[in-house]
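FORM 12-B: Structure-to-Sequence Request
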């Protein structure tokens, strides 16, 4: 099968990529191209897709080889990047997509990629070429900003937000790499909070044994004001934001703290720690947001509770949704974060009707 003008999913047989492929296949997007270094895994995924759907093919692509990457993107009208870890891939796939004349969606990407693509007038090149690049189209960041934006849009005067995001889940090596490297000022500030339009450092302490509806057991909540949370606060005009990363098991948190203290770069111990947590506590993931409308006194005015078996299917949901919005022309040329160009209300409604998660607004 020729793959001219294909929608190519790089890392399409991974935990997130396979979810994207299944969703785009179900939506009738064609032709589809499942790309990555392991052609056998791509072919196995394709063999498991429902018969009678759109054309799908496998392609061997090494993202560390510029010629291989350019050959792939030259045959695509849209590239969806699900390969990782994001902080090693950085902007290499996005730039290859632009060279090949393709639009681009990244299930991760985040601030480091946005900064690289926007440096020295780089974002303008996407506009001039008539192409869109949509970054952070995953569960976190991505849904973690869209869902509270939808909640805030229902309020008359949102003044405060508390967020709890995380759980217990196995880590793929790529996801472990993103967790390990996701630190520093381009990602966020530990123990900080957003107060009165600015970041306040060392404002919060960890919360132990917290019970929340998004999680089936008590959790530890570690304050971390991400750059995404700051963008959310500014976009929604919320004066106080307290953002917590949730750990449902102790081993991953311990191993991550040790790796950061030693400035480690190997992911094997993180993967093993996450697996141990899953064996002890099961696998589950959640996001819960508490919003105060008008005043911060008393309990929150509204809550949004998301429960899911894991975050990978959620990332596939949003990345596929962003791809469909690019394909239907909803997103204009330029470089964006998904939360800034997708409709929060539409995403929330679609997710509430999807089997990837259970979502309630209370």
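FORM 12-B RESPONSE
SEQUENCE OUT:
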């Amino acid at each position: 099968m020729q793959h001219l003008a294909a929608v190519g999913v790089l890392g399409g047989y991974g935990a997130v990529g396979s979810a994207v492929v299944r969703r785009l296949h179900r939506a009738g997007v064609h032709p589809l191209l499942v790309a990555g270094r392991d052609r056998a895994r791509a072919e196995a995924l394709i063999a498991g897709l429902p018969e009678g759907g759109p054309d799908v093919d496998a392609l061997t692509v090494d993202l560390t080889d510029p010629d291989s990457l350019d050959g792939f993107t030259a045959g695509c009208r849209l590239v969806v990047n699900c390969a990782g870890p994001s902080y090693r891939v950085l902007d290499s796939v996005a730039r290859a997509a632009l060279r090949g004349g393709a639009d681009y969606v990244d299930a991760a990407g985040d601030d480091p990629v946005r900064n690289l693509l926007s440096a020295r007038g780089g974002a303008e090149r996407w506009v001039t070429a008539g192409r869109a690049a949509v970054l952070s189209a995953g569960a976190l960041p991505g849904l973690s900003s869209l869902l509270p934006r939808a909640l805030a849009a229902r309020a008359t005067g949102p003044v405060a937000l508390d967020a709890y995001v995380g759980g217990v889940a196995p880590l793929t090596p790529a996801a472990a790499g993103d967790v390990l490297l996701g630190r520093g000022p381009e990602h966020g500030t530990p123990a900080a909070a957003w107060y009165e339009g600015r970041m306040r450092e060392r404002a919060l302490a960890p919360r132990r044994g917290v019970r929340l509806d998004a999680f089936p057991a008590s959790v530890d909540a570690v304050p971390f004001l991400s750059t995404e949370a700051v963008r959310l606060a500014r976009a929604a005009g919320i004066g106080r934001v307290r953002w917590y990363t949730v750990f449902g098991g102790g081993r991953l948190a311990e191993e991550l703290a040790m790796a950061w203290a030693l400035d480690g770069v190997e992911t094997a111990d993180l993967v093993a720690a996450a697996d141990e947590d899953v064996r002890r506590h099961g696998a589950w993931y959640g996001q819960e947001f508490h919003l105060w409308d008008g005043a911060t006194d008393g309990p929150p005015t509204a809550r949004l509770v998301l429960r899911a078996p894991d975050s990978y299917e959620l990332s596939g949901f949003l990345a596929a949704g962003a791809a469909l919005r690019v394909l239907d022309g909803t997103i204009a040329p330029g470089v964006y974060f998904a939360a800034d160009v997708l409709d929060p209300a539409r995403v929330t409604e679609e997710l509430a009707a999807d089997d990837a998660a259970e979502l309630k607004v209370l």
